[in-house]
Amino acid sequence: MPNSTLVGIILLNWNDVANTTACLRSLQALSATVPHRIYVVDNASQRESPAPIRDGFPEITFIQRSTNDGYAAGNNDGMRQAFADGCSHALLLNNDTEVEPTLLDALVDCYALSPDIGLVVPLIVDHETPDRVQYAGGDLILWRALSRHRGYGQPVPQVSLAPAEVSFCTGTALCIHRDLYQAIGGLEESYFLYHEDSDYSIRAARAGFTLYYTGATKILHKTSAASGGYMNANSFYYSIRNGIHLIRRFGSTWDRSRYCLFTLFYFCPGVIAYSILKGRLDLLRAYTDGITDGIRHRTGPRS
User: Fold this and answer.
1) Which CATH architecture has domain 7-221?
2) What are the extents of the domains in the chain?
3) Pairing between strand 164-166 and 146-149?
4) Coil vs helix vs strand at 49
5) What is the number of other CB atoms lying within 10 angstroms of the CB of residue 64?
6) Most buried residue, 134, 137, 192, 273, by CB count within 10 Å?
7) Per-residue pLDDT reduced to its tens digit, 33-75
8) 245: part of which helix (H) or strand (E)?
């Protein structure tokens, strides 16, 4: 590990003092081997005052935003401060996670495998059932605007823990090397929520950096505590709309054609049937709004 290593750990808080506090407490147990600083960005919380976070953890750097401009904007504020403070890496860590003491050691050791590595993500397991995998590497299927998590739902002993190159790094625990940040900048803010990590993975790879997963350490993740999960109507809306945005930004003509055919003849009928059978007309509305707003190039928060 080089002497210049300093990891800035960035947590984004939005009306979620309990989860952010639990995450910070787990970070207090990190190994002292890797120097680090912790940054908490409050994304204009209104229902819950972030004062218990700011006052209860004097060792952190607390950044208060006046508006909630989404996941990327909040994390970009944290990254700008971390790299301005001299950090060599920035770890974007969901506030609904808890970590092992070896987290930073494993991430930094993975970077030592090659000077071209720009992004590293650890093994991610379910907080409630920690023997079950959420992410053990990832693959991006651009024509479907789909990020596939390797090993999802499998028992931990059945997945590889060895470092491996991937094409998708999830934003749940995304470690970014300073060289990559200097080359491509921060996260794309127009998405507001969902697919920012897919976008960043593509940009990193196209800039000549490699993306890695390591199972040498793990984090425990409470799935989508802030957004409500994929079957939440708003989450579904952003996933659909931003998938179109992603393909428009990076997909070839063939990618776009395949996406349209898949959507028209497979995914759309499935959503209609599911929504009617389950009585989830809110999902059907979210889907049609997402398609419509995606086609119309609408970005930012859902209106």
Assistant:
1) Alpha-Beta Complex (3.90)
2) 7-221, 233-295
3) unpaired
4) coil
5) 14
6) 137
7) 999 999 999 999 999 999 999 999 999 999 999 999 999 999 9
8) helix 233-250
